[in-house]
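Treating backbone geometry as a discrete language has practical consequences that deserve illustration. The sequence in question and its structure tokens are set out directly beneath this paragraph.
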Amino acid sequence: MKAVVWQGKRDVQVTDVADPAVQEPTDAVVKITSSGVCGSDLHLYEVLTPLMAPGDILGHEPMGVVEEVGSRVQGLKPGDRVVIPFQIACGNCFMCDQGLQTQCETTQIREHGMGAPLFGYTKLYGSVPGAQAEYLRVPQAQYGPVKVPEGPADDRFLFLSDVLPTAWQAVEYADVPKDGTLAVIGLGPIGDMACRMALLRGARQVIGIDLVPERLARARARGAEVLDVTGHVDIGEAVRDMTHGRGTDAVIDAVGMEAHGNVAGKVVQSMGGMLPGKLAEKAVTKAGVDRLSAFQHAIDIVRRGGTISLSGLYGGAADPLPMITLFDKQIQLRMGQANVKRWVPDILPLLSDEDVLGVDDFATHHLPLAQAPEAYEMFQKKADGAVKVVLKP
């Protein structure tokens, strides 16, 4: 089959790889019909290269049609249309029972001290072959796949794999009071969708913050107020001017480790990728420095006693934080990978023909799998208005 494989920093290729097969009784094989390119994939393209190996198959936002199931997979059969959550969880351990599927005790990557494995995402998360491919082996298929109805185009349901539950959890963790205010830093796919969800759930004022004109325009068109960071010397002061001098009740940081505005952090990240083998891996996992400008802005923007919700991925272990400010402002902080299956029952009813979240036209680009290298380059450079790219095998 054809698949998108990682070959090195800023180097992804579409090559022939072995077809996946059922290996365990709880496996399924799914023929992929759509697979998203995520902002987290760009971390693999640029920063987390020491944790990758040439030939790793990328991608963790798939949907498709079941081809084959193992003997212990109940309630799923060939021909079923399914969305695959990006993490692999068993559904019956203590953590899964708590709705913390990303911490699944059956599948945890204990070798590296990490939670549940993720499709197509570094050795830290199991080096599981990813979903930007023609076919995908799905472990724990007795629990993971979400069956969706026939009829609507893939985009109606595709984003259940990651974007929708990640944005929903970001808003849930933000704990915006009824009729409250929220700032969202970063208007890529997660930030954009978080703005839509927060307004749908009753936030009085949502302020989207970014520097890309097309992304600001998308958020504004869906009802958010927007701030272009290039037009303000002090973003915190600008937000306080919009919120009676107080700041927002909550802030979602949907940017993460590769935020703009931290030159030193970018240099350290780049240097880590230049080190040989194990030294580079250790530099990323033990001494890594994130570019924390978005998080620093969140701390400044949020009102005293407010909440910061981190949905952007951070990976550093040696980053200075203004603990005195976090403590003095009595800031609540919540974060983590989205627990997809926990939020699916809340989100599915919103994916009706009314399309209240705008999923049908959420993707800006649909490209054939063969054009994955161009898709990655375009998405990283934010060229041609790229906000969300979907690959079609």
Observations:
- The radius of gyration is 20 Å.
- The longest strand covers residues 28-37.
